[in-house]
């Protein structure tokens, strides 16, 4: 497959007044034509710096980037600007010109390449159709929702028929439904026009949704690269695992107690949240290992098996509480679910 | 004593004050706008950082701004003579007025342009926009509202300065206020000139605010 972007030994060091930050520490990556390539990492991992190196908005401290075989570091200002017209970019905060209408925003990159106004307007209308905002051509960005603004930004990015589209956290400011719609639009653009898309994100769901390949960046180095399937199914690096499991990684305290009890419901009102009240009263968690209760005419019937807290005092208090509620309580020696 | 002569004098004074203010502001912007743009562009983190150019401009602006206007007025008499041919009168006052206001305008422009969202500038850069395109089509346009507000402030300040110049024979309403109110103890004429000055500032302010609002596309509905 034809290589579109080749990142070669790219490092970037920011020298501040009293500290230097190594944002990128020797990145090597190849992105092929027509791919949707995800670059994912936690905030501060260096992904935004990396994407800015792809169009030299940030000049790498060492190493270089080839776009279609052209070494960006050897270009002069004019040549670099010329190349940039082929590498469009969309942003987390859309970055539209607030004092221009939607139509004029889309015309802006065409003004830069000095396209005649009439042709530019024609092209802009065509793009508005593609992103589904034809009726908004005379609106100003302030009158649009976030999703609509990003659509305008996408239309603007496509105006000069770029070969590459860089997306810097393009969906991070949008709600889940809008995110899905924007991602679908990006995918459609990729398929229809064969534009290579590079997506920078911190959300694994974005990568899963549309990317074919993914690179995981962690503290300025690439921890792992591969197809999305590979990385998602068998994450090897620590950073990859962290990102893949980020959805269900909320830390819960594990139950350490071994004591289990069985309670039998026979006559309690099913409207009374017995277990919840017990937990609130005794201020200690229990683990429900089994629950098989049903509501028969407003009365709770069935059984439950609870794992008690480690603290014996709390466990005793709970058992007492349950007995007071007129429930049968039976201690189980070694319950195995 | 409120004869037509005095009324004519006040009307004329108002005209002269407006003339000095508007022409000086125009010249001050002709000088200050490029200075302000240069300050923003050459600042560290700007589009074309240049420490030397930035520092020189920065120091010039600070020096001129810290000289009291009346002193500057006197200091610039030789230059005024050179340009206008004499050192008194309304036209002569325009020289020190413009030069004193230019650095002030430069700072106003600088702060307006710095308000422009860096992301928008970055977006323009990513499209391959040149420095000039970014200045003309992004910075100045996106900062339009703030620039107009700044210009309104500049007009008001320059009008105040022009009244000050009146004390040393600059002409206009300030001149009348000093001659009649201070030297001849005609408080009523002085009060009228003050009211006229206040009214002028008010009118300029209202026009400026209206215009900036009208041209601001960020306001919805």
Task: Walk me through the structure.
The complex is a heterodimer of chains A (337) and B (221). Chain A contains 11 helices and 14 strands. Chain A is α/β, with parallel strands linked by helices. Chain A has a 6-stranded mixed sheet with strand order 6-7-8-3-9-10, sandwiched between helices. In chain A, strands 2-1-4-5 form a 4-stranded antiparallel sheet, with helices on one face. The radius of gyration of chain A is 29 Å and the shape is elongated. Chain B is built from 10 helices and no strands. In chain B, α4 crosses α5. Chain B is elongated and about 70 Å long. The N and C termini of chain B lie far apart (53 Å). Chains A and B meet through α2, β6 and α3 of A and α6 and α7 of B.
Provide key terms for this protein.
heterodimer; A: alpha/beta; six-stranded mixed sheet; four-stranded antiparallel sheet; 11 helices; B: 221 residues; 10 helices; 80% helix
Topology:
The complex is a heterodimer of chains A (337) and B (221).
Chain A: E1 3-15, E2 20-32, E3 36-40, H1 47-53, E4 62-67, E5 70-71, H2 77-84, E6 87-91, H3 102-112, H4 117-131, H5 146-158, E7 164-168, H6 176-193, E8 196-201, H7 204-210, E9 213-218, E10 221-227, H8 228-233, H9 238-244, E11 260-265, H10 274-282, E12 287-296, E13 299-307, H11 312-324, E14 328-332
Parallel strand pairs in A: 3-8, 3-9, 6-7, 7-8
Antiparallel strand pairs in A: 1-2, 1-4, 4-5, 9-10, 11-13, 11-14, 12-13
Chain B: H1 4-42, H2 51-66, H3 69-75, H4 77-84, H5 90-114, H6 118-126, H7 131-142, H8 144-165, H9 173-183, H10 187-214
Helix pairs in contact in B: 1-2, 1-5, 1-8, 1-9, 2-5, 4-5, 5-8, 8-10, 9-10
């Amino acid at each position: 497959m034809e290589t579109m972007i080749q990142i070669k030994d790219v490092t970037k060091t920011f020298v501040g007044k009293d500290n230097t930050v190594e944002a990128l520490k020797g990145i090597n990556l190849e992105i092929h034509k027509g791919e949707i390539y995800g670059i994912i990492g936690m905030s501060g991992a260096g992904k935004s710096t990396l994407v800015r190196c792809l169009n030299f908005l940030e000049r790498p401290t060492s190493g270089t980037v080839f776009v279609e075989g052209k070494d960006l570091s050897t270009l002069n200002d004019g040549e670099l600007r010329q190349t940039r017209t082929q590498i469009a970019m969309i942003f987390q905060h859309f970055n539209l010109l607030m004092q221009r209408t939607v139509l004029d925003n889309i015309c802006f990159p065409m003004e830069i390449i000095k396209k005649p106004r009439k042709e530019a307007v024609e092209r802009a209308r065509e793009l508005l159709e593609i992103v589904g905002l034809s009726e908004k051509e005379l609106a100003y960005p302030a009158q649009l929702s976030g999703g609509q603004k990003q659509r305008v930004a996408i239309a603007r990015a496509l105006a000069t028929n770029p070969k590459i589209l860089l997306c810097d956290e393009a969906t991070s400011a949008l709600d889940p439904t809008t995110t899905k719609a924007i991602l679908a639009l990006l995918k459609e653009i990729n398929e229809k026009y064969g534009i290579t898309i590079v997506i920078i994100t911190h959300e694994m769901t974005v990568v899963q949704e549309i990317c074919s390949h993914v690179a995981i960046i962690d503290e300025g180095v690439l921890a792992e690269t591969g197809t999305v399937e590979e990385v998602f199914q068998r994450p090897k690096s620590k950073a990859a695992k962290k990102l893949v499991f980020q959805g269900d990684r909320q830390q819960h305290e594990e139950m350490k107690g071994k004591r289990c009890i069985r309670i039998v419901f026979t006559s309690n009102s099913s409207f009374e949240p017995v277990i919840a009240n017990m937990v609130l009263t005794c201020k200690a968690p229990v683990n429900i290992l089994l629950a098989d209760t049903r509501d028969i005419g407003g009365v709770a019937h069935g059984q439950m098996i609870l794992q008690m807290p480690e603290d014996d005092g709390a466990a005793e208090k709970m058992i007492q509480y349950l007995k007071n509620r007129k429930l049968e309580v039976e201690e189980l020696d070694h319950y195995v679910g | 004593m409120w004869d037509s002569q005095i009324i004519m004098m006040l009307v004329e004074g108002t005209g002269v004050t407006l003339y000095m203010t508007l022409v000086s502001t125009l010249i001050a912007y002709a000088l200050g706008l490029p200075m302000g743009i240069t300050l923003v562009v050459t600042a560290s983190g700007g589009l074309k950082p240049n420490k030397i150019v930035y520092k020189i401009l920065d120091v010039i602006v600070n020096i001129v701004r810290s000289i009291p206007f009346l002193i500057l007025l006197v200091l610039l008499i030789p230059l005024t003579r050179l340009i206008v041919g004499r050192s008194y009168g309304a036209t002569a006052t325009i020289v020190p007025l413009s030069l004193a206001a230019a650095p002030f305008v430069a700072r106003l422009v600088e702060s307006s342009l710095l308000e422009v969202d860096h992301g928008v500038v970055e977006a323009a850069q990513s499209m391959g926009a040149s420095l000039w395109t970014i200045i003309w089509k992004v910075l100045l346009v996106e900062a339009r509202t703030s620039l107009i507000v700044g210009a309104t402030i500049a007009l008001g300040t320059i009008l105040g300065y022009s009244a000050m110049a009146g004390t040393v024979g600059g002409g206009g309403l300030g001149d009348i206020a000093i001659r009649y109110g201070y030297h001849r103890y005609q408080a009523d004429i002085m009060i009228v000139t003050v009211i006229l000055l206040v009214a002028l500032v008010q009118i300029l302010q209202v026009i400026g605010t209206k215009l900036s609002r009208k041209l601001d596309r960020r306001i919805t509905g």
